[in-house]
Structures are given as C-alpha cells and as structure tokens.
Write a structure and sequence with these properties.
By secondary structure, this protein is α+β, with helices and mostly antiparallel strands. It has one domain: Sortase (Sortase, Chain: A). It contains four helices and eight strands.
Amino acid sequence: MERLRASFDEEKRKNKAKKKKILIIIFTSIFILCMAIIAYKVYEHYKSNKANNEVREILENSNEENVQKEKSRIEKLNELKEINNEIFALLEIKDTNINYPVLFCGNNDYYMKHNYKKESSNDGALFIDKDYDFNKPSSNILIYGHNNIGSKEMFVELLKYKDESFYNTHKTFNFTTSDEEAEYEIISVFLSKVYNQSDKNVFRYYYFIDAKNEKEYNEYVNNCKKASLYKIDATASYGDQLITLSTCEYSQKDGRFVVVAKKINKIDNET
C-alpha cells in the first residue's frame, strides 16, 4: 500500500513538474512574441519617421546650389515624383506637421499601410479617393489620412481645426500639383462617421466626388455648412474646385473629422 501511494505521489509530482514546464514554455513564448511585436512597432515607427523627415527635408530646405532662390513647390513635387510617380500633389497646412505628398493609385487600401516611398508603414500616406477622375477633373478631391494614436504624422494635427481660434488664424492651406500651386479656403469643419447601409437621411460626405449637376453640388456644400462645428462665412459655388480632408475621430464609433475647402487662387512664386 505504501509503495502504491509513493508511486502515485511520484506520478503526481512528475505531472506537476511537466505542467510547470509547459507553463514556463507558454509564458516565455508569449514574452518573446510580445517583444518581437514591440520591436517591430518600434522599427516601423523609426522607418516612418525617417521617411517623413526625408520628405520634410526636400519640402522645407532651400536649394543648396542656389540659396538665394528657393525651389518652388512644383519643383519639389517633381523631385518627389522621381521617387514615386504615384505622387500627385503636395498638401501644406501652416503651423502643423501636415506638409506631405498626396498620392493616387486607384484603390483605397494600399497607402493606408505604405508611405510615399512604397515602404510598409503604420502611418501610411495621404491619398486621394480611388473614384477621382483626373480627366474631367472631378468636383471634389477627397483626401484620406490616418489619425494614429501616439503619432504626430499624417492627419493627426488636422484636428487642430476643432478649435475655432485655430481656424481663425489658418483659414487657408496650399495644394500644389505639377500644373499649379493653389490656395484653398476652408468652408466647413465637421464631425461625421461611416454610416451603416441601413441608416437613413444621413450625410455620407465620403460618397461625393463628382457632381452630376449643380443641384447635387449645392446639396453637398449645404450639408457641409449645416454640419460645421462653428460658423464659417466662406462658401462655395457650383464650379468651384473642392478639397475634402478626412481622418478618423474617436469620440464615436467609426467617427470621422472632416475639413472642406474651395480653391480661391493660384499662388504666384515668380520673383
């Protein structure tokens, strides 16, 4: 009987030691996996910052060969196009980090996870909605960008426009293509969301790219004005080129923060 009890106790001890070993292996594996994920995130953040710093150096530094005459934004854009021919424009909002290339590749997925150099990036890049038609061109250039928590890149600082006092001193921004450098005047700043298909009588701003007629254009502008967080006197008339800047906003599920502007003039860079 004693021998049987001793054998049972020994088996119990071995099973306990085996379970402990398995738990150690599991927790060690989880720890290694977590460290690998953290290392990957740190590397992605480093790579994203490196790419964004490189583009800022191109966009913000003067021409080294001739410091007396800074390169125009169009020249800088063309320089970036040599890196990636899917770069369509440059967007700059003063007193923010928003000074980036804007890309177009015909889908709304790729630049969610790739930067302007086509490197994988959690910050992604600013990109134009896939349905924009450059041949017309379409009425509205709808531009998306991430608002990643913990980052200062892409459209994180677009949310400065929640504050009316920021709008009052930053009513315009610059948008540069290969054809022109233009100034856009903000006509609305509002909160929205991605609605369910079953939702009725809601303003799905993200469906508006090209107006079929004047009525459709005016409906979009009027809905933007009604939704605005604060009163903005400037508005748009049928035929005005619009830009809509869209990013995530976390006060509600699937929330969005939106800034809409119209083109008011070309910027003359001649000296």
